Amino acid sequence: MLHSHLTTLNAVSLVLSTFEVQGWPAATLLAGSGICAADLSRADTRIATHQEMQVCANAVALQRDIGLSVGRRMHVSSYGMLGYALLTSATFGDALRLALRYPALLGTLFELSLKEDGEQVWFTAGDYRENPALTAFNVELCLASLKVICDDLLGHPLPLLGARFEHDAPDYRARYAECFDCPLQFQATTNAFAFDKHWLEQPLPLADAVTHHAMAERCRKQNTEFTGREAWLGRIRQLLAGQLHAAPGLDGLAVQMNCSARTLRRHLHELGCSYQELLDELRFERAKQLLAEDHWPIHRIAETLGFSETASFRHAFVRWSGVAPSRYRG
Fold first, then answer.
1. Residue 17 contacts by C-beta under 8 Å, 6 or more apart in sequence?
2. Domain range 211-329, its CATH number among 3.40.50.300, 3.40.640.10, 1.10.10.60, 1.10.3720.10
């Protein structure tokens, strides 16, 4: 999968601060992500999902239950204008429905929904499409953070009736009980937690109609800009993916995008990436696909990806994956 989705630095910042108190340097967590210290100091920085996932993979390698730890620290205030819009909503149900309207501003990797089942409502996170190796981590992060948001909105813990997880119960299952405080089910058909339906009508303690209207309008505008940038990045990836055998270069790509090379370079920098990084990512994804097909000799894969020499491809693949193409193929 090519990661064209953009997200904020919320999760990355919390991962770094979580490990900082344990003495781990930021460089260890940021390794391979393309995120630098300067990016962390800018509130409006947007990063690609694969960059966030690299940081998360580094974190999971150090601490397997880090998803729950980070999720419990993702308070509603972590979401900027959207957080204020949620807090000032009239009712708990209004706030949740507003959150579902702007998944890009939540930075979620799931399709979120509220599903009524008699007198209870399941807050469900489905349709996960990212790195399979990080599925459990992302489920933990998502549901733990959603529970914290619910608690923040109400001003007290939301009593849960149950929680379900598609993955197997981990050896740190006791941590789940701390986070959700309800009956747990693993190897379920959905990832979700349930609460009594009456809570949807609960007035929020910080409700303010004037502030809410202003924040909701700013969220609408920010979402339009955010999704527009996603579409723009997706178009770039689409163009490059069709020209891996003869990459157009930054200038050629700028012509195809109907902008100047300087403008393209600036936009890519704002998105936390560069032309070469995008090209490398696309080549790496395609290389893995072709290496999975035994009838493709390595020299042909190198040609298809635009490398003039097989050796150059081998060196690049080792840089991307840590192993030679022949070893990757097994």
1. none
2. 1.10.10.60
